[in-house]
Sequence to fold (701 residues):
Amino acid sequence: MKSKLINLIAIALLIANVSCTSEKKEKIKEPLKIDVSLTQNEISKGLLTPEIMWKFGRVDNPCLSPDGKMLTFTTTYYNLQENKGITHLYVVPTEGGEPKKLTNGVGSEYNPQWGSDGKTIRFISTESGNSKLWEVKTDGTGLHQISGIEGDIDGFCISPDGTKILYSKAVKLEKLSLDIHPDMNKANVRIIDNLMYRHWNYWEDGAYSHIFVANLKDGTIQNPKDINEGEKWDTPMATDFEINEVQWSPDGKKIVYCSKKLYGKDYAVSTNSDIYVYDLESGKTEDITSDNMGYDRHPSYSSDGQYIAWCSMATPGNEADQRRLFIVNIKTGQKTYLTQGFDQNVDQYVWSEDNKSIYFSSGVKGTKQLYKINIETKGITQITKGTHDYTLCQKQGGVLIGEKMSMSMAPEFFKVDEATGAETQITFTNKNIYDNIKMAEVQGRWVKTTDGKDMLVWVILPPNFDKTKKYPTLLYCQGGPQSTVSQFWSYRWNFQIMAANGYVIVAPNRRGVPSFGQAWNAQISGDYSGQNIKDYLSAIDDVRKESWVNNDKLGCVGASYGGYSVFYLAGHHQKRFKAFIAHCGMYNLESFYGATEETFFPNNDLGGPFWDKNNKIAQKSFENSPHKFIQNWDTPIMIITGERDYRIPYTESLQAFNAAQLRGIPSKLLVFPDETHFVAKPQNAVVWQREFFGWLDKWLK
Fold:
């Protein structure tokens, strides 16, 4: 079974409440002990630390009751010493009140969904040792497992009338080495004859995620049918496998879903997913977006069954293209590009209850806000404003709920008045921590770039900031590369922890990030070493003019494309910086191209393969690979990587470290054998932070 970590990192850590150092399932006898109280020493210091970070409760999986009066959600807590975490189910009134904990066993819960009666909640739990479907009443009684599914399931959705269920699970379709050579049962080999043999953080194992439909009767699941039978691709789509991308029609007669129905090399070089409608009676499947060669994802029926909405990207092979909102009239087949003329992306969205509008979240100038669009007039209204990120929304019973975060607040749930934008906080998961620590001040400033554009730069000042003092200052290089430096809260690259360690952080929204229009976002493709690199330097050069910046103590840090940026700047920084840290960065673009898994990504972002000598864009990209400027490196550098990172394989970091060592440059290498592109396991993450600041303090303090 694949390990599905991309957007479900918490589930991967928690799914059986097992040790984060073990890949095997264990039979847990007692619930994990959780203590989120701060020590007296932590209270007296009053600053955020890596250890405190792992006391944060992490909310997720919100689902509104049909009448909008209750919100169910999950909260994940960790035990740092045990290196484990656990996720439980809660419910809270949307008018406010104390959340009620509905589960308290040894397993973890996720994917909660309300029954149509508004009195029961169904969810997936690992309580029995496997991922199974369970049910509980809103008062916490009636907790039981729903039987009838063999093996683990990954997600589910009950039909509107409650008589059927769709769910996703893995189906083995291809042979492994033991199947091919059964007499060699101690052999350990992967036999590969096509792409895409590994993806993000897992090797393909011959199994693919499929959607099953079954009857739901008397608490049991009966007569399951695989609607993707024989298909050697994942539905829901890898690597997030979101069951939200599979939905019932309101009459329960059809299922809409998205899938990239390609195999092998074709799958690796393409983003061409489509929206499919499956008819339960006939068993036939219709592709309703075959005319578009880019991504088509996140389909959703209107509650009256007249429309299907979805998000679409026009450019083949470009995963960071503009996300546009479409609807199709099911009777006429007429498609409408709703957000035409809107120069930002459409992120998560939900239909209004009267089906006349759609609510959605979108980035704008380094923040994320909630919007509403009228499907007839295409008029767009911005609902929220402020220095924050709203990352999702739901609407039921006249109640609009959003998940809100900022650089100073971990995600919490808020009720939003769509007429005024007024907010009411519903959950206060980490109040005990905020009451005892001092957060850094976050400022925004607009900086002129070398080509005369205005660029938003976030500047984070240490707690108890004193403008008469001088502070070591870090330039933060964003990954993605098409990822906004918004008001996100990160449990890895957390600006508040950096500031609490006495650093000023400079975080520019350089060229190539969304929320500043499509021209700004698209500029980076085919120009990794170009204007965006100049933007970084414009940001640090502007802030370093401040009297409180110690110009002799500047550092530069970043991950992924930010790691590429660090490697590139190490050869081009003209003595600005005194220390570098690169996490999972691209060092040698030729070896990166040859080893990464989603080949469509470098084909778009780098312009194509390095062997295409007639491709001027690609040749420019590879000529500016950071490894070609290693002779200019002259500054201490720490390099971090995870061995299970298949997006930017860990050998990129080994090459960079070896070169630094051979050139006599002070350098350090951190390799996490059981981590991916992200360092997500509790004790690994704390070690990451300790080494991060140990390196910076050594050279900048």
